[in-house]
Amino acid sequence: SWTMSSFVDATVKDLREQIGEDEQVVCGLSGGIDSTVVALLLHKAIGKRLTCIFVDNGLLRMNEGEEVIGYLREHFDLNLVWVKAQEEFLGRLKGVDDPEKKRKIIGHTFIEIFDREAAKIDNVKYLAQGTLYPDVIESISFKGGPSVVIKSHHNVGGLPEKMKMGLVEPLRELFKDEVRRVAEELGLPESIIWRHPFPGPGLAIRVIGEITEPRLDILRKADKIVQEELRNAGWYRKVWQGFAVLLPLKTVGVMGDDRTYEHVIALRIVDSLDAMTADWTRLPSDLLARMSNRIINEVKGVNRVVYDVSSKPPGTIEWE
Ligand code: XMP
């Protein structure tokens, strides 16, 4: 639309002025729409003087890194560093089951790795990030995950002295729906524009209890089915978020003549405007039935699926 194309032009012009002629800028890519839009605006403004860092923490959904980063690599000539840090994250999370400890470990590890990578670039003067207006007015209270840590720690002086950087936040006056319109203007595909919000700590807070590779694997497979079925039924864009959660318990079932004792998957699908409040989505029962049948038939190790019918408040959207 007219307003969004003028937003893009004006922002690109402002960014060029703010950043200057020689300085380098670094930006963290998460795979979500906000950081992707920030990266593309900066790329338009300063081209290769922008370096994007994507830290793969091993806690992403199935193919998520490949989908978003692969797309950017194919379509834009970005300087893009893809850090494969799965082992570092999962190693430090070993044996940890407390949700806040998980968040802290993931947040600190992210900052450590991001700073390590950023320090390799000469003359970095700015950190670009996808702060939105609601973050600015702090109306969304995240639980202290990395997106918030990274959004705040540079302001509070958490970086080593030699790495003091200025902040570049081109989206700080926008709401989510406006970011989506800018993304359309920039030509991003629907699969990125309408991607559901995904928490910084990723699947770590959806594998309830200890995080292990086999448990992540079960959750990834179940979650993929939820995403597919939501899309196929035309419900993906109608809901705020929809995902699977792996519970830390096993229950009894039957298969043929045998008794099974396997994991439980909870489905969490909610309607919301801003994540402050939410209600569970009244999905058609045949869609729920399809998700349940597919998960139980296709995901080894799961014999039961339940639907979360709690609203927020008092329930939160995530289970941890
Ligand atoms: P809750 O569970 O608090 O979630 O109702 C509200 C929204 O925030 C997301 N969320 C997080 N995002 N780091 C993030 O970056 C976190 O630690 C975190 N915890 C929750 C959640 O997915 C929902 O969109």
| Mean pLDDT over the residues | 91
What is the domain total for the residues? 2
Bulk shape: globular
How are strands sequenced across the largest beta sheet?
3-2-1-4-5
Number of helices: 11
Structural class: alpha/beta
Helicity level, as a percent range? Answer: 40-55%
Uncertain spans: 139-161
Broad CATH class of the largest domain: Alpha Beta
CATH architecture classification of the largest domain: 3-Layer(aba) Sandwich
Sheet with most strands: 5 strands, parallel
CATH topology of the largest domain: Rossmann fold
> Between the first and last Cα atoms, what is the distance in angstroms?
39 Å
CATH superfamily of the largest domain: HUPs
Rg: 20 Å
Strand content: 15-25%
- Total DSSP E strands: 9
Helix and strand sequence: HEHEHEHHEHHEHHHEEEHE
Bound molecules: xanthosine-5'-monophosphate
Description:
This protein is an alpha/beta fold. It folds into two domains: about 1-195, HUPs (Rossmann fold, 3-Layer(aba) Sandwich); about 205-305, GMP Synthetase, Chain A, domain 3 (2-Layer Sandwich). It has eleven helices and nine strands. The strands form two sheets. A five-stranded parallel β-sheet has the order 3-2-1-4-5, sandwiched between helices. Strands 6, 7, 8 and 9 form a four-stranded mixed β-sheet that branches. A hairpin with a 2-residue loop joins β6 and β7 (about 260-270). α1 packs across α8. The radius of gyration is 20 Å and the shape is globular. The two termini are about 40 Å apart. Residues about 140-160 have low confidence and may be disordered. It binds xanthosine-5'-monophosphate. Xanthosine-5'-monophosphate binds near residues 197, 199, 200 and 312. Xanthosine-5'-monophosphate (XMP) binds near residues 103, 142, 200, 241 and 312. Keywords: ATP-binding, Glutamine amidotransferase, GMP biosynthesis, Ligase, Nucleotide-binding, Purine biosynthesis. Homodimer. One of its GO terms (cellular component) is cytosol.
